[in-house]
Amino acid sequence: MVLWLNFFSAGAMASKYFRLTIVTAALLLSSSVVGAVTAATLYRWVDKNGEVHYGDRVPPEEVKLDREILNEYGVAVKFLPHELTEKELVVLKRQQPLEAAEKQRIRQANQRDNVLLNTYLSVDEIEALRNRRKELLDGQIHVTEAYLKNLRAKLIKLQTDASRFQPYNADPNAPPINRRLAKELSNTLKSILVYEQTLVDTHTKQTQLVAKFASDIDRYRHLRGLN
């Protein structure tokens, strides 16, 4: 048995969610209608003209519309979204990665909050850990600076030695630089470049470390209500 009902009205009556009393009255028009409703799935949908329809079948030309499944009391228990248009699919495809990224950001923020609350008992503990890690980087910086000082002194000596030879000496009668000295000079220059970059990287790490702990402390104060 196929049951279709429709209602014509404006305002709230054209809405998918008008009052349950109206729906119940429609469903109880006769005992035969009630029997049909309880024996089959009942759908409710609004057509393109704003008319509300009820039935245990949805006409083929309207299956692409939003629909609701109602229980025997006329209460919506499930929502069936309309078939997406090509434009809506494009928008959805564009939104999905953004929504996924936002969910990931929220998940990571929650994890960070849990780590802060479960790891530290006070702001002093966070500051103490920050100071210890900063001191480690300070030590690396001092060691690197000492290496660079020695390498630069060595480079000056090697350059002085190399100045007696071609191509570092403009005298056409100067002998060519020997392979050992040339290689040592080249290796020293390369080492200086490496340690200079290491020094820059370590300073960057230290700056990032201090900024991260400052952010953690601010967040911890907020979570503990210490602001």
SSE topology sketch:
Layout: E1 4-7, H1 20-27, H2 31-39, E2 42-46, E3 52-55, E4 67-70, E5 76-80, H3 86-119, H4 123-162, H5 179-224
Antiparallel strand pairs: 1-3, 2-3, 2-4, 4-5
Helix pairs in contact: 4-5
Largest sheet: 5 strands, antiparallel
Number of β-strand runs:
5
Low-confidence stretches: 7-25, 27-38
Number of helices: 5
Query: How many discrete structural domains?
Result: 3
CATH first level of the largest domain: which class? Mainly Alpha
Radius of gyration: 39 Å
Largest sheet, order of strands side by side? Answer: 1-3-2-4-5
What proportion strand? 5-15%
> Helix share of residues?
55-70%
Structural class: alpha+beta
Q: What is the CATH T-level topology of the largest domain?
A: Helix Hairpins
CATH architecture of the largest domain: Orthogonal Bundle
Series of secondary-structure elements, N-terminal to C-terminal: EHHEEEEHHH
How would you describe the shape? elongated
The span between the termini is 67 Å
Q: Quote the average pLDDT.
A: 82
Model description:
By secondary structure, the protein is of the alpha+beta class. The chain has three domains: 4-80, no CATH class; 85-119; 120-224, Helix Hairpins, CATH 1.10.287. The protein is built from five helices and five strands; from the N terminus they run βααββββααα. It has a five-stranded antiparallel sheet with strand order 1-3-2-4-5, with no helix packed on it. Helix 4 packs antiparallel against helix 5 (179-224). The chain is elongated and about 105 Å long.
